[in-house]
Design a protein that fits this description.
The protein is an alpha+beta fold. Helices cover 33% and strands 23% of the residues. The protein has a domain of 144 residues: Roll (Nuclear Transport Factor 2, Chain: A). Strands 1-5-4-3-2 form a five-stranded mixed beta sheet. The chain is globular.
Length: 233
Amino acid sequence: MSRRNDEPTKRRADETTGAPLPAPLRFFDASAHRFNPPAPRSLCGPAIRYLLLTAILILFSGCSLFETRTPEPPLGEAGTFVQPDTPEQVVANVEAAVEELSPTNYRRSLADAFTYKPSDTAAQQFNVWSGWDRSSEERYFSALVAAATVNAVPQLSLNDQRFEILSETQYVFEANYVLNVPHRDPDAPTDVQGHLVWELLQDADGLWRLAQWTDQELGNNASWSTLKAEFVQ
């Protein structure tokens, strides 16, 4: 039997059973079903928000977070001290130690065999000079630092300076001094004036140090010797 004769039979069979006819075949239209990629996920999740907030805080806290910071000097070593390779550097170190009230740097500037000759008036007025050595000088200066007023800034002026070369390892330094030290001891002067003579020696290690100090008074002014005596009595 031909296909033309079969089709009416199938339609009649379907009409007899009442079953729905299958849907006619349709061809896929690719142009109407283009591939659409999924939308990107949001970057505003909790983790991303936290990272963004952290970055903003770092930015506004300043870029110094990543800069090299100058280390602070350790306790007991604060102040200005340059290796005394020359006699002039010894003078500069002693000046800095006095103005910065640094017992450590003051001590480092003194020779082991340090000696002191007081002014004439102080020698007669105070009975403390016998055996005055490096430890006596250190004791005076430490007591002065302890008595200094809060935020005290001593002022030391060395005028009319003169260096004399005695040998390759021995220099003499002379100057007129004016010293002001704010402190709390009512018996000690805060202002002293006079003339100093420092003998500077080069030690075996090649470094220079203050070996001998001679103090001379000028007029009726209290001398440095008076200040030292008051703080070791």
